[in-house]
Amino acid sequence: MATAPRLYVDDDLAEHTHLEFQPGPTNYLLRVMRLGPGDPVRLFNGRDGEWRARLEVQGRRAYGVVETCSRLQTSPPELTLVFAPLKKTRTDFLVEKATEMGATCLRPVVTAYTQTHRVKLERLQALVTEAAEQTERLDLPRLERIQPLSGLLADWPGDRPLFYCDEAGAAPPMQVELAASGAGPAGLLIGPEGGFSDLERAQLRACAGVRPVSLGPRILRAETAAVAALALWQSELGDWGNAPYVPEDPEAGRG
Ligand code: SAH
Question: Is the pLDDT of residue 246 over 90?
Answer without folding.
Answer: no
